[in-house]
Amino acid sequence: MDVIIxxxxxxxxxxxxxxxxxxxxxxxxxxxxxxxxxxxxxxxLGSRENFIGEISELGMRSVLxxxxxxxxxxxxxxxxxxxxxxKKSQKKREGE
Length: 96
What we know:
Layout: H1 2-16, H2 23-46, H3 51-95
Transmembrane segments: 28-45, 65-85
GO molecular function, one term: L-lysine efflux transmembrane transporter activity
InterPro entries: LysO
């Protein structure tokens, strides 16, 4: 929750208080901070003793976290689009 609050404050500060002329500097700073964050996360993960074993375990969990929502979305959205798009196309044909 704290991260979301800080991000929202950053958005508001950027919108109302950050001058437009510093936009390019801000973009470079964001890129450097992102690279530094990714690097430090890699160092932290690489320093774990059983990292390879953890990756294989996390890999299976992440496949499930990807697969279940994706399949569920397709199962829900496909019939709904067929229903609503068919109604829309029928209205277009009737209007012509």
